[in-house]
């Protein structure tokens, strides 16, 4: 399951976004630290393909893939040294797959800004620096330990110490630990340390409705430039906290019409999830039967046995083959049986690389 941690300064729209995403009713009052403990929401991933498949099979149950959002208390300048809620936020986002950094890009005199005045680049830099300083403390502690082991002749410790030296150099400049990566094993080492600046990051720019319709603004452009300047493979997702809050109050059947009238193709939820999938190299496969049709998340490049393991570890352990068909052919032909009759169902072995949209039936024996 994809896990995304939502971070940002107070009063930039984090809890408003979280409420809209999860349809939760967590307070989003106009003052700092209204979210003291992390709030976790499990959100179904909207995927029309799943419902097209289910319409063919008519199963007892339809289960979409989900994403977990973790709403973290607002950071402030000096959080890494104990200001505001201090390091309380750290443990809450060590385990997420990616970070969504919410940045305020709209003017509103009625919404207090802790840093006094709208400046998306300044806000970006404050949070980026606090994450870097928090990581710096972790890296320095680990580096001391690995140096001692390296002096004793431990080759692995020597390699890790070199990586940590590079990471410290970047973190001291307020950059990300990801910039220290040189070898193929480096990302794994950084992930094991739970470094925040080694995680993929996307930006959720909270804009007014006019900017949302245009798709850009000087503030949004400046935010993207700041992210790129920090050597980040940045994705900026625009959303309007006000519009998303209104959308969350509507019945599901009325949301499409609301978006159409607002001149918006998809909700902030859809854009954020799609950006997260793209950022992390994720895709979706489907399983289908009389009891259940289900969507599953996997990493692009995974083989059929690896995807089988997402369904159940026994399926990966005893994998024999996977009956495979693209979702469009599945729907057009009316399921596995008719696909076989047309010679379009394939039997794939252990080396098959699963494609986004595949409908899979795993054969296994344990």
Describe the structure.
The protein is an alpha/beta fold. Helix content is 43%, strand content 19%. The protein has helices at 14-22, 48-57, 90-93, 120-151, 155-172, 186-192, 209-214, 218-229, 241-248, 252-262, 268-280, 304-311, 313-317, 327-333, 336-341, and strands at residues 2-7, 39-44, 61-63, 66-71, 98-104, 201-206, 236-239, 282-288, 292-299, 319-326, 346-348, 358-364. The strands form three sheets. A six-stranded mixed sheet has the order 2-4-1-5-6-7, sandwiched between helices. Strands 3-9-8 form a three-stranded mixed sheet, with helices on both faces. A hairpin with a 3-residue loop joins β8 and β9 (292-299). α1 (14-22) packs parallel to α9 and α2 (48-57) packs parallel to α14 (327-333). Mean pLDDT is 84; it is low at 30-36.
Mean pLDDT metric? 84
Contiguous uncertain segments of 5+ residues: 30-36
- Return the structural class: alpha/beta
Number of DSSP-assigned strands: 12
Run of helices and strands: EHEHEEHEHHHEHHEHHHEEHHEHHEE
- Give the spatial strand order of the biggest sheet: 2-4-1-5-6-7
Helix content: 40-55%
- Percentage beta strand: 15-25%
Q: DSSP helix count?
A: 15
Instruction: Report the biggest beta sheet as strand number plus sense, adding barrel if it closes.
Output: 6 strands, mixed
Q: Which value, in Å, is the CA radius of gyration? A: 23 Å
Shape assignment: flat
The end-to-end span amounts to 26 Å
